[in-house]
Amino acid sequence: MTGFGRGSAESATRKITVEVKSLNSKQLDLFMRVPQYFREMEIEARNVAAGVLERGKVEMAVNVEHTAPVDVLEINRSALASYKSQIEGMKDALSLPEPADWYATLLRLPDVWQSKSEEISDADREAFFEAERRALEALSEFRITEGRKLYAFFCEKIANIRRLLAEVEPFEKSRVEKIRQRLDEQLASLRGVDYDKGRLEQELIFYIEKLDVSEEKLRLRSHLDYFLATLGEADGPRRQSGQGKKLGFIAQEMGREINTLGSKSNNADMQKIVVGMKDELEQIKEQVLNVL
Q1: Phi and psi angles of residue 76, each rounded to the nearest 5 degrees, phi first
Q2: 226-241: pLDDT as tens digits
Q3: Nearest-CA neighbor of 226 among 251, 257, 244?
Q4: Under a CB-based contact definition with an 8 Å cutoff, are residues 56 and 1 in contact?
Q5: Would you kindly state where each structural domain of the chain is located, as residue ranges?
Q6: Cα–Cα nearest to 238, from 162, 150, 153, 156
Q7: 157-212 pLDDT, tens per residue?
Q8: Residue 274 neighbours by CB distance under 10 Å
Q9: 285 CB contacts (<8 Å, ≥6 apart)?
Q10: DSSP-based three-state secondary structure for 25
């Protein structure tokens, strides 16, 4: 979901540059910085961006450079005075030297030059939205590049969890035998106590069944397969949006099965394996936030 894009377009009188920066967010949070005389197009520009970006904390900055001859421009004296006052205040506060060339410094600042007529032509509108379109395309390409990296990352982490799950199996049979042996030893230490061996066997079977992790393993494998299917394992990284939340839900279900597996393990070696699976899953959950 993170990314950056820049796009430029020109009309007969202006060069318009749009920069778009996106960070993670559960919904679309779009902040725009647009010159005053372009504000009439802001709502339409927001709708265009929302149709492309869908989610993310997005900052869009629009910069306009005048390319018309000087005789159709004039200096914005109020902006010039404000800039000079602020620079002088900064000079005194930070003990900085004055600019060597005030004209060169001030005349480069935004909105110092303004058109004598700030009416927006059709060509200006077309250039504005063309620049926005190019910036959004660049950002989308950036996201796609990052998505390919995430795809490989997720595949690796899912493979690691699957490998760790397979390592649980050798401990299952020995764990049951150790439980049975421990109970036999404890009962043998109780001298002079008679007990029903048949009832003991029933209780032991019931206890061992409660520790059985076959269903948890089966469901976890199913969640791993579903995660990869949603990700697009067969066709490679897909340029399809709306999968991020779904992958997050699947990761939550994986977490439930891993937690239950840990609570039932009753074995130090199995617990270590479960901790390893939790670590891999937490890395998945962190990166799922980057998926649209």
Answers
A1: -85, 95
A2: 999 988 853 444 445 5
A3: 251
A4: yes
A5: 77-110, 145-288
A6: 150
A7: 999 999 999 998 888 777 767 777 777 677 677 766 666 667 766 766 666 666 77
A8: 23
A9: 248, 251, 255
A10: coil
